[in-house]
Amino acid sequence: MKKILLPTDFSNNSWNAISYALQLFKNETCKFYLLNAYTPVIYHVEYVLVSPAQYGLGDAVRENALKQLEDFKTRIEKEFSNPKHTLKTMAVFNTLVSEIKEVVDKKAIDYVVTGTKGATGVKEVLFGSNTVHIFKNVKCPVIAIPDDFSFEKPHEVLFPTDYEIDYKDHHLKPIIDIVSLYNTRVNILNVSYGYDLSESQKAHKSILETYFKNTTHLFHSVSNQNVPEAITNFQIKAKINLLIMINNKHSFFENLFFKSTINQIGFHLNVPFLVIPSTTYKT
User: Fold this and answer.
1) Which residue numbers delimit the UspA domain (predicted)?
2) Which of 34, 154, 209, 243 has the smallest CB count inside 10 Å?
């Protein structure tokens, strides 16, 4: 049974991500955890250190969170009724990323599915700060859904790689699990700077060939483009439904999102984005 965590701030963006997850895994037996992590707008240090309930300050916030979770649950059961799916709601006094890390660890979560932006949803920003922190700190595959994306079956997946990763089961199993649900083609895109592959890169490419042997896949190689350009150009040529990257230290993923501003790299994402951490809680 798949265990999927759905964080929500009750925004339209988070509802869109929830509806995507319910449709993506509609033929799978799943347990969904619908999570709202809340902190009162103003609180003192002693309020956090001692029990919030002792002050009674969190009660109204908690009651509101529980009510909205129940509203979302009712809406899910009405719009996406599915006997294969069970749903548990969680309202927790904590910061969002800390709570996600804890739930992922304790519940052995398989995927976190979140929106790309929060309730404020600034158009110019590719990822909200919470989404970036989830990518960086949560050791579990994360699927981020753009706020205006309507569900499409992931028939064409784009997987850019520099072949610098010694691929392990926990890197590739989350990809295989999703693509095996659909008639999916995996497009493995190597962006080089005109150099031949090293021996270790060839070995890593060979691992991918073995993993994807029962999946329709194509290897692509482009040179003299940077990674954002290569991804954008590929999306223009092919109808991509899902972008996948492994968040490996010193990889181009890290450079792409955490060392440049989005405006500088000119990268636009209009499809769901699956980010796989280099390490997981389960390894």
Assistant:
1) 1-146
2) 209
